[in-house]
Amino acid sequence: MIHTLLFTIVIECVVVVGYCVWRTKPTAPILLTSIFANVITQSLLWIGLNLFFQYYLITLFIAEILIWVIESVLLHLYLANQLDLKESALLSLMMNLTSFGIGWFLPV
Fold it and tell me: Average pLDDT for residues 38-57, to the nearest whole number?
């Protein structure tokens, strides 16, 4: 779990920095929110996958949607991020699609 968490944080931080530069948003608070959100959501993901291992792909699909929603809300709620709900949903989607897409092909 620690390996996947670190991998996810590194990949998603790269996406966050790129997004912040592109949209001229404050990088530090968004990075901190992203890391905090990942610790929570990755823990929930691993709990869910361990509880429902026999339904791995369905659990993974549902969990990824929930992760996207949770991270979007957390990114939006922290006012220092200066993200409206649409921006936070887009950023969270970009972060999660990138880390999921790369992670799907890695032997972790």
Answer: 94
